[in-house]
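User: Here's a chain of 318 residues. Predict its fold as tokens.
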Amino acid sequence: MKIAKSVLLSLFLIIYLNAQSNNNKYVIVIHGGAGYTSPDISDSLKSIYFNSLKAVLQLGKDILENGGSSLDAVEQVVRLMEDDTVFNAGKGAVFTEAGTHELDASIMSGKDLSCGAVAGVTKIKNPVSLARLVMEKTPHVLFAGTGADILGEKFNVDLVDNTYFRTEFRYQQWLKSKQKETEPKGTVGCVAMDIYGNISAATSTGGRGDKWIGRVGDTPIIGAGNYANNNTCGISATGWGELFIRHNVAFNISALMEYKGLSLQEACDEMLFKRLEEGTGGVIAVDKDGNFYMPFNTASMFRGVATSEGLFETAIWK
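Assistant: Prediction complete.
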């Protein structure tokens, strides 16, 4: 009994000291995709966009403020964004060339570098939650296509018919993209540091509009579109996935900090403005000291930040 009490006391002291050493400091950043959104859109549409950003940011803030983990925060925030038709993830995802939907997601814990991802799922209501189950319930990192859908069935996650992801807005956007040969794109993501100093990141997407069947971008690729490491930073990316994969953007930001001693801003700027072409995307980032940065080289990026110091801001344009 004495040993048990001693162990419990030690665990309590570790948790307490970790929280105190970090002064209950937390930070959370979100993004809802980068690209071009006209600043001349109607006030009603602006309200819809900002209300969505504020709602998901508030959810994450509440979780962290109440002592929740960064892993829970990023998963729940991205789940809510997957359920919101405003964003290109989950319900409201863009169409493939065949008029269907294929979704990707990943999640990572900077505490121990554990991670999970799914690609090309077609009936998983919330891909980010399946990604977490891959991380916590399997010895693997990435499941794709039919195998990922089957895994979702095994884990009893919420399943839907593929038509669930369809919205009229995305359908009309798809028709226009076919006529104009453009590819609407976007991704959602969240990075957070909790009061225990742990950093987590999660990213989810419907991919590029009118994409080829089976195409997978950077979102489910750990190190490209998503990464977290308590020793450096957490990153969630959005933009032209192929380029983020080729340049291993998320990991390289962390590597520049760890190996070259660059600051969070310097590392992000190196990748976004020196290695990538203009108009290709952006990232949201949080470092081990609680600093945050949300750079993008496009015309706009849906984004927001909340901190334990009281900062609560959302933005779309520069």
